[in-house]
Amino acid sequence: MDIVEYVRNRPVKLFSKGEAILSEGDVTDTLLAIRSGYCKVSSIDSAGNEHMLWIAGRYDIIPTERLFSARTPLQFFYTALSDVEVYQVNKADFIAKAKADVTLMTEIAASMSSHYDDLLSRINSAGHTSVREKLIATLRYVAERFSAQQSVDLYSLGLRLTHKDIAEMIGSTRETTSLELKRLNTEGCITYDRSQFIVNLDRCQL
Fold first, then answer.
1. What is the arithmetic mean of pLDDT over 176-181?
2. Is the same domain home to 101 and 185?
3. Domain-terminating residue out of 77, 104, 122
């Protein structure tokens, strides 16, 4: 049995774009496997500034950091970045099933390894010094995370990131981020308007 086969028979819950899915301080014994849509994982600092840490997509399990951890409560905020459907999975039942099914446990291990690689890429993208470098690295990270194409239209994937969303991801102001996005658009690194947001990976280079 694989993860998809296991979760697809679980109850489904819907969240609208912008709705809180899980919050810092929550204690839960339920895992959520994303059926469709996207969820942003973020933290909020002492000054009230939000920092987007990661984007979860189809069949990602959240909160991932609690899958094999007994640590409570949650430390981060999980918010619907688009309309989201999730499968509700009882954590104890899922872990018990995984321990008894080598195929399922192997897939979980592979998924966790991939998630770790995603997080390292995200940390690397946030570690650049200039806003331009952070922006390019972050756009590449998002595009490569959800597509294997060299030209990726985020909107066609259902991932409609606003300038505010991107600013939160790179730790910059919306105004500065918008200016840099316009420059990248002029240079052909990205192409965006109301109907599309294309990241041209062959041109979007550091």
1. 96
2. no
3. 122
